[in-house]
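Subject: sequence -> C-alpha cells, single chain

Hey, anyone have a minute? Need the predicted structure for the following. Not urgent.
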Amino acid sequence: MLGPEIGRRGRQWFGNEFGGAFVLVAIVQVAAMALLSALRIPAAAAATGTRTQTPFASFFARKAFVLAVVAAGSASAIMSFLMTATPISMHVHDAHSIDNAGFVIQSHVIAMFAPSLVTGWLVDRLGVRRMMMAGVLALSAAIATAASGHSLMAYWMGLVLLGLGWNLLFIGATVLLTKSLEPSERFRGQGLNDFTVFSSQAVASLAAGAVLHQFGWAAMNLAAVPLLLLVLLLIARGDGSPTTAPSTSPVRRER
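Reply:
Had a minute. Here:
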C-alpha cells in the first residue's frame, strides 16, 4: 500500500522527477535495517548422522523438486516481468496518470499477498497439483486480459489476476518443495531453489523495459506464455502428488 504512495508523494520533492521517491525508499531501508538489527535467530541444530551433502544433480533427478523450482521460478519471473513494465506502459506509452498507475500496482500487490490468508487452507483442500493448476490458469487469464487492450480496466484486471496467479502457483510450488526434501537436505535444497527463483526474477526485471520498448505491451504479455506451457508440461508428467519426502539416502546416486 505504501510503495506507490511513496512514488506519488515524493516524486517532486527536489525538483527532479521521482528524486524524493528514491530518498523515501532509502529511509524505508534504513528503518528496516534498524528493525532487523534486533532480530535474533537461534542457530540451527547440527544435523545428526552423515555429514555428506546431497549433490546438486540428485535434486534435479526428482520430478517433484524440478517442478517446484521451475514453477516457483516461472511464477516469479512472469510476475516481475509484467509488473515492472506496467507503470512504463501505462504512463509513458498510453498516457495514463501516475495516480492510475500507482492504483494498479497497489491492487496488484494486494492480490499477491492477501490471498495468503486462505491459500494454506486451499492447499489442504485442493492438493498441491490442483493449486498449481489454478495458479497457471490465473496467470493465463492475466496475460489474456492485459494483452487485450490499453484501458485502465484492462491493466487493472490483468495485474490483479497476475498477483493472484503468482500467489497460487508460488505457494503451491513452495509446499511441493518441502515435500521433495529430506530434513537433512532442506537448507541446501532451499538455497538452490531460492538462487534459481531470484535469478529468474532478476533477469526478467532487467529485461522488461527493453522488451516493452522493442515489441510493445501485447507482445510482451504473450512472451510469458512458453513458461506457463513448461509448467503445465511438468505437471502433466507427474509431479506434485508426493505427500512425503523421498526416503532415499541423501548420498545415493539417483537415475
